């Protein structure tokens, strides 16, 4: 047995005493400590933040299990009110993690930065309480060309046989479409390639232009134009030719549940099918952008209501919900949504759907990768929220440019929408593209005629943000410009106004 000199032996004994002391104190601290922490250090705007309260103190556990505490999220020392008016977050015991857990939906367009947690009504625990923090940060989106302007083609007319009257008046094949893109001074051409269903029963995609897209891509590259392809995600174009195996969204009509022609957001096969289609074009030279249209619950959505109640903090079904039939649940929910008397409930429903769609976009982004930027068309009523869409959440999820469809509105509604968007988003909050449509009837037969297109585009480029112009502008679409409701005006009349709007957009000064 080794023998140590006496001084060394004394030192070792002292060190052993200190080690035992600190070990006991550490054990006591762990036993008596209270920790309030977030589930992760970093969140995006589509996230629901998990909050965990942990302690080993048996007296606290007993008290809190009979009367659970609540937490708040602080920014700059002040409690943050989030979606559905939530301020205090009730914490409930979760046996599996032996902790009290709460959930806090990230507010619409929450400022980036640090947020801290606080426990309500437990001042006596101040010395023992350890509170954590988390950050909310935006995803860095792909760069967008300066003053990016695009013309679209939303049609399944077969391009192989398409005849186009070009700007010079001559008849051309499909290449005449690109003559119009260049005439308007646009930088790119975005073309629909994915529409469900196909022509044959059970066929997933309309195949009219799938083989033409590589040819259009090559021609765009030759002309120095950016080319994009997009798919219509959750709205199909037939109520009878349904895709086998898909779940379709449900609606309530005359007190009865009816199926719609919109694919349900919870249909797990749909994102994979859309991703597979877009992958077909992703690596083709000349394809620069991939796009998502109808990336929302296009019709109905009442098949989602039980999942909404299960997942969304701050909302609860009425008493006796479990005893109601499916029809009774849908009828109750539909009435509550349509009446719009419960603002917190409506806010929660709108946020949760945008959160849900963000999860779909994340799945698509994971499938498609980072080699090509992604854009999304979004509706614009109530900042997109009315449709379960939000550019901030979508860009966090994987969208690189959000194309706002500022149409199908009266002149008064248009002015209100632009003002509402300006109060919501700065240029740095989300990359936006503003767009209007070639359609005299959707401009309420304005006496300006095609001039209404220019007027609305210039109002949008000037006012969509409070601090400068948007990242892009689009005109929708060449199929309408050639074959649509032109109100007695010519294609060139409309394209002249598109050209003037694009020229003005490109001449705007740099944002501060």
Top keywords for this entry?
Immunoglobulin-like, 13 helices, TIM Barrel, alpha/beta, single chain, about 500 residues, 6-stranded mixed β-sheet, globular, 3 domains, about 35% helix
Note down, in words, how this protein is organized:
The chain is an alpha/beta fold and 512 residues long. It folds into 3 domains: 31 residues; 104 residues, Immunoglobulin-like, CATH 2.60.40.1930; 264 residues, TIM Barrel, CATH 3.20.20. Helix content is 34%, strand content 22%. It has an 8-stranded parallel β-barrel with strand order 12-15-16-19-20-21-22-23, surrounded by 5 helices. Strands 2, 4, 5, 6, 9 and 11 form a 6-stranded mixed beta sheet that branches. The longest helix is centred in the N-terminal third of the chain and has 27 residues. The radius of gyration is 28 Å and the shape is globular. About 3% of the residues have low confidence.
- Tally of alpha and pi helices: 13
CATH topology of the largest domain: TIM Barrel
The portion of residues assigned to helices is 25-40%
**Which architecture name of the largest domain does CATH use?**
Alpha-Beta Barrel
The domain count comes to 3
Q: Which CATH C-level class of the largest domain is it?
A: Alpha Beta
Instruction: Assign the CATH superfamily of the largest domain.
Output: Glycosidases
Measure the end-to-end span.
Answer: 79 Å
List unreliable stretches of 5+ residues.
17-29
> Radius of gyration in whole Å, from Cα?
28 Å
